[in-house]
């Protein structure tokens, strides 16, 4: 579904270059739940921004469903983001002036989907995530956990092929983090969502089926969960993090 081929990203000018991504390559298959880990400054957000075409790469190729995103015009890109990508941000980014129902349906409405279809799709996904009763409410009238579910519903309501999450548990306490990670796991396992989650947190990453480790803009290591339980996987992730430079306080 997603092919990252030898991408490089440089910031700055000739005299002061930061190499944020250095020949990064990997594929994401449909139905995967992949976590990208790495210390602060290792290039995680840059990678996500390049995949969502918020930022442009300096070299290499990014193909989503076979389309090279560098070939798209601004207009095609906007459409591509709305239709193919779902985002779950650290603060969930719900618009306070819209109801939960309108927030979830926003991408569809922007695509000029018929209102009746929007309503059906929103209600279907809201039911799956158990938030039907809060649809008429505004974000400030619902709990943090309900906001999470609304943000997750929005990320998949238009049948987006790929969900991108940047530190989705960053602002949450441990109970709320666990809830969100379980929702994302369910979306992946039961609803077939493909998820790419950036995190510096080993506990969050242990919910994924595969973890890629970035170091100084390069893929340093990769772990597959396989049939192992989550707690075992969690400890393996911690082991890789310590091998990443022993600077564990920086990454957990
Ligand atoms: N707009 C920019 N201009 C110049 N340098 C940048 C810019 N954005 C990021 N960088 C640099 O690129 C490198 C990678 O940054 P990035 O934000 O991708 O890190 P990260 O892994 O997301 O870190 P964190 O865990 O702190 O969010 C860093 O050295 C950073 O200083
Ligand atoms: Mg970041």
TrEMBL record:
CDD domains: ABC_MJ0796_LolCDE_FtsE (cd03255). Residues 2-241 form the ABC transporter domain. The keyword Acyltransferase does not apply. Keywords: ATP-binding, Nucleotide-binding, Transport. It comes from the Bacteria. PROSITE patterns: ABC_TRANSPORTER_2. Gene3D superfamilies: P-loop containing nucleotide triphosphate hydrolases (3.40.50.300). GO terms for cellular component: membrane protein complex. One of its GO terms (molecular function) is transmembrane transporter activity. Belongs to the ABC transporter superfamily. PANTHER family: ALPHA-D-RIBOSE 1-METHYLPHOSPHONATE 5-TRIPHOSPHATE SYNTHASE SUBUNIT PHNL, LIPOPROTEIN-RELEASING SYSTEM ATP-BINDING PROTEIN LOLD. This is ABC transporter ATP-binding protein. It comes from Parablautia intestinalis.
